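tokens incoming
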């Protein structure tokens, strides 16, 4: 029994390959250590590191064992539903966590991280978007580049291949960045990349730090874009470039406006169909589920490319260029220049 609380625990962990394992323990911290050292259970051996997704404490071992048995019999889909329920409960009802957009988004990406490269990373529009960002970023040898919402590093790695530059990656999800960190180690890029957990809404860098700021499918998580863009303008060198890769989807307006809903659904259809075709049913389900957050603006505040360009102008940027990803009407980029002396 956990001596500090007198409790028994049922837990669910996610293995490195994305599979879920349910267990029972009277010492959670020790048990997780055991799983990570390959001695926790036959199933988790070779599947580490594991990530704790769920824990429930019980006063008696028989209650805990009964619950473990029930959860073990659930399908993966039902286990994920249980996790969502528990997560909502802890985030919203019980007040254990602050219910902020940032926390909702970070939890979402922390839970998606192990599957990210095999899901969104496999969809044609995402690869096309990253390639377009890199082409238009026109990165040069020696450039100092900031990648906002670097995630697992899919964009940063393309930038690093395009020129002999250095990249600073920032993200709020420690799990997404830890996958990027592994890649940096394996590719021997540690002298060219540095990572920091940081909120895009509060970037802490000195004035004129970067030649280029890039960001793909991240900035729509910010509700208040203008102050964040003013800050990006501040940390760019004079004439520096800001390249935003985003979904072209205006989600502004009242949630009760049916024309707004039609507009969003029309755009989402163009995201969901390639998601199903290119990356399969699980990715489609994930994107479909995420669609609700776009519709209700729950941590997702997408804008049209024209709106993105407008935010740049308001924040002090000069000329902007808009380009669409070839073959995908609702994905594109905005390039803006820092207009300062
Ligand atoms: C869809 S992923 C994109 C990752 C990468 N740029 C790519 O294109 O593959 C969005 C990323 O933005 C990060 N993110 C979301 N909100 C953020 C915020 N406020 N500050 C920093 N990163 C954020 C998420 O954690 C996630 O890694």
């Amino acid at each position: 029994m956990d001596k500090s609380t007198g409790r028994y625990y049922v837990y669910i962990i996610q293995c490195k390959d994305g599979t879920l394992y349910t267990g029972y323990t009277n010492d959670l911290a020790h048990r997780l250590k055991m799983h990570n050292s390959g001695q926790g259970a036959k199933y988790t051996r070779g599947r580490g590191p594991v990530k704790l997704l769920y824990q429930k404490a019980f006063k008696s071992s028989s209650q805990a064992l009964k619950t473990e048995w029930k959860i073990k019999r659930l399908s993966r889909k039902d286990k994920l539903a249980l996790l969502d329920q528990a997560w909502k409960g802890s985030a919203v009802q019980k007040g254990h966590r602050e219910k902020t957009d940032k926390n909702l988004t970070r939890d979402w990406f922390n839970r998606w991280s192990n599957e990210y490269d095999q899901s969104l990373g496999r969809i044609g529009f995402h690869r096309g978007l990253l390639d377009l960002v890199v082409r238009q970023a026109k990165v040069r040898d020696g450039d100092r580049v900031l990648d906002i919402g670097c995630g697992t590093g899919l964009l940063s790695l393309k930038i690093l291949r395009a020129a002999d530059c250095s990249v600073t990656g920032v993200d709020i999800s420690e799990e997404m960045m830890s996958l990027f960190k592994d890649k940096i180690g394996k590719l021997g890029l540690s002298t060219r990349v540095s990572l920091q957990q940081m909120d895009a809404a509060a970037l802490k860098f000195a004035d004129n730090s970067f030649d280029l700021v890039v960001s793909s499918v991240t900035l729509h998580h910010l509700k208040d874009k203008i102050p964040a863009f003013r800050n990006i303008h501040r940390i760019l060198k004079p004439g520096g470039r800001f390249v935003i890769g985003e979904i072209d989807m205006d989600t502004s307006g009242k949630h009760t406006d049916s024309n707004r809903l039609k507009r969003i659904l029309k755009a989402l259809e163009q995201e969901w169909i390639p998601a199903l075709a290119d990356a399969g049913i699980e990715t489609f389900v994930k994107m479909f589920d995420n669609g609700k957050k776009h519709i209700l603006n729950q941590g997702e505040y997408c804008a049209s490319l024209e709106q993105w360009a407008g935010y740049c102008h308001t924040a002090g940027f000069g000329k902007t260029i808009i380009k669409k990803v070839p073959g995908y009407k609702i994905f594109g980029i905005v390039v803006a220049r820092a207009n300062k002396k």
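note: The domain at 8-98 is CATH 3.40.1440.10 (GIY-YIG endonuclease).
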